[in-house]
Design brief:
- This protein has 10 helices and no strands.
- It is mainly α.
- The chain has 2 domains: 30 residues; 213 residues, MetI-like (MetI-like fold).
- Helix 8 packs parallel to helix 9 and helix 9 runs antiparallel to helix 10.
- The relative contact order is 0.12.
Length: 249
């Protein structure tokens, strides 16, 4: 317990400081629409948690995120593998990845709405935003298996399941997990933005727009807190797994 407090004390101190600053600004502004008090936000959070429909909204948004991330992992791993094996393929794919990485999110949303409609646009937007990050992560991971490591393996044994599991994967995973942490964070932001514009059924983006239309900033902040908590838990789990793998190397 003491170790946990020691390692995370300043983290929680920062959260407490943010809460205090928000409450001071809320009292000073005396405007519940722009700066609702912590009490109002917590009340809205309690209302969201007690509404059954909120769980569907949350699960559908998380499901969209998982689909987009899994698709990005699959495509990015293949693209990075072939880019690592072929310099020609790398030269072809690099400008495409660069365009995807630098194009505005709103442009993707508008184009996809025209091409495929509202329902699936948010998933594809999240996929496109996370693809370049995961591609770079996998490419760096493949590069981490340098020729010296390969030569040592050839001297000792052939490349087999044991070598892949106990040598290649532990070396590669820190790069992959780092890119996954970045992609999940950007993925959920772009997904919710796309949901807000495309308005698919059962989506957090749609809920946020409804709260905005009713000038309910407490509800907007409540959903924001839910998303932040989920992302923090996800990052903690991934970092814990990353540290476990790094300790094995």
């Amino acid at each position: 317990m003491k170790t946990f407090i020691k390692n995370n004390g300043f983290y929680f101190l920062g959260i407490i400081l943010l809460i205090i600053v928000w409450e001071v600004v809320s009292v000073a502004s005396n405007n519940a629409i722009t700066f609702p008090s912590i009490g109002v936000i917590l009340k809205s959070l309690g209302e969201i948690i007690t509404i059954k429909n909120s769980y569907l909204v949350f699960l559908y948004t998380i499901l969209r995120l998982l689909i987009s991330i899994l698709a990005s992992i699959l495509i990015a791993s293949f693209l990075a593998y072939f880019a690592r094996r072929s310099n020609v393929f790398k030269k072809i794919i690099t400008p495409i990845i660069t365009i995807i990485k630098t194009a505005p999110v709103v442009s993707f949303i508008i184009i996809l709405i025209v091409l495929i409609g509202h329902d699936k646009s948010s998933i594809i937007v999240s996929f496109l935003i996370t693809l370049p990050i995961l591609y770079e992560g996998f490419y760096n991971a493949y590069n981490s298996i340098n020729s010296d490591i390969k030569d040592e393996i050839k001297l000792l044994s052939n490349t087999n399941f044991y070598v892949i599991k106990n040598i290649f994967i532990p070396i590669m995973m820190p790069y992959i997990i780092t890119s996954l942490l970045q992609s999940v964070s950007l993925g959920i932001k772009s997904l919710v933005m796309a949901e807000l514009i495309t308005q698919p059924k059962y989506s957090i983006g749609r809920e946020l727009l409804q709260y905005r239309n009713s000038l309910d900033m407490g509800g907007i902040m409540a959903w924001t807190i839910i998303l932040i908590v989920v992302m923090i838990v996800f990052e903690l789990l991934l970092n814990k797994y990353k540290n476990k793998i790094e300790n094995r190397i």
